[in-house]
CCT-beta
Amino acid sequence: MAIEKILKDDASEEKGERARMASFVGAIAITDLVKTTLGPKGMDKILQSTGRGNEVTVTNDGATILKSLHIDNPAAKVLIDISKVQDDEVGDGTTSVVVLAGELLREAEKLVAAKIHPMTIISGYRMAAECARNALLQRVVDNKENAEKFKSDLMKIAMTTLSSKILSQDKEHFAQLAVDAVMRLKGSTNLEAIQIIKKPGGSLKDSFLDEGFILDKKIGLGQPKRIENAKILVANTAMDTDKVKIYGARVRVDSMSKVAEIEGAEKEKMREKVKKILGHGINCFVNRQLIYNFPEELFADAGILAIEHADFDGIERLALVTGGEIASTFDNPESVKLGHCKLIEEIMIGEDKLIHFSGVEMGQACTIVLRGASHHVLDEAERSLHDALCVLSQTVNDTRVLLGGGWPEMVMAKEVDELARKTPGKKSHAIEAFSHALVAIPTIIADNAGLDSADLVAKLRAEHHKEGCNAGIDVISGSVGDMAELGISEAFKVKQAVLLSATEAAEMILRVDEIITCAPRKREDRM
């Protein structure tokens, strides 16, 4: 007994076999959870929070599902992390990366049971991943010289990304929106310039792309409804000090007339401030905080459009897009950068009035207005569109494109298999296992579509032994189809990220041989 008392009471450790079991089981459970969302016929999950408000999220996006899970198993946490990183890095392939890592571990479990050392498996996986990446590199298509072709590549990628999401019904429409928005960015991956506004009502087909910037606010009373060649001052300052605030101040006076004097002084202060602001030679003033009636009146008299209470996102983005800076002091007008745009007007979307800034400084800015039946639909549409935008903006920089639909996995699997045959020693088992894990992705895509996966994947494998074959799984007709004709493409960058992250995550979990859970600190009674 005495030996075991190294760790504290509540701490526990799992050694060797049991630790590895625990991590394999956790990782595989996570994989099985998200793998039904893979592919064009993947299903969605409903995530319901048990907190206040019982929010419900309906989503198909791997990263969103995993982010919302509270999980105890350490290995599962590693998988959740890689899907998050995949989401931040390239935006799409969040489900694939988890599925691939999980399948690698599932294969590793069999190898460990066959008495192959984890380190051997890891070095085999390393070789296999390198080989798979080279196989992809040889088969990439790069159309960056030919603008027409490249644009159609982008359309295909967008449609492939969207086809596993809720937008798949109108995927041409949304792919067009996404491609237009990304083409305006001219190669920067800064998605800040693309603003997405969600307005319930109408149907998904009514969504549209608008050049310029839309601020979700109404125009104040008695103010000009449209302004041409606007000079905009974006500010974050308090414009509500023209009345004495009864709560905040204690003033001792001996008669009411004194209070009036104080109020007069406050009003003067406000008037001075407004004068300073007008001194910038602007005709539109956007403020983050409240603007009271008195200053608003002054602005209206000067024919200036004052917008109050713009939300913070809106304001930062507005400053970015119009090329201004957010100001908070107005003493030296020459140092403040004003924003510019050609036209400010009020537009109606559904029931709401919004302010539309068009012809902004930053030419790449645009706004996508999503319409849809309910908030859940809109949220999911936004996530799907965000995935598409991320992938496209990455592709504009790294123009290499692959076919989709399980084709890249089969190409990699074929090469990796050949490597396994050439490699002597126990490593070859690990390399072969890697190829099995890759084949699992087309298998799952077929399974989710309710097809006979064993049959289809065997056909695919046979097809891929011919040179220059474009075969992949066509879930719509339920057979092996030509991916080039069907226009199913994916970005090379996404596939590469999936491959490398999954391998590294699997490697990390394989290296574990002991899990030590430490005891929570006891709270002392402070009596």
User: Anything to note?
Assistant: The CA atoms of residues 402 and 490 lie 5 Å apart. The chain has three domains: 12-141+403-514, 147-204+373-398, 213-362. The chain has 16 helices and 19 strands. The chain has a mean pLDDT of 82.
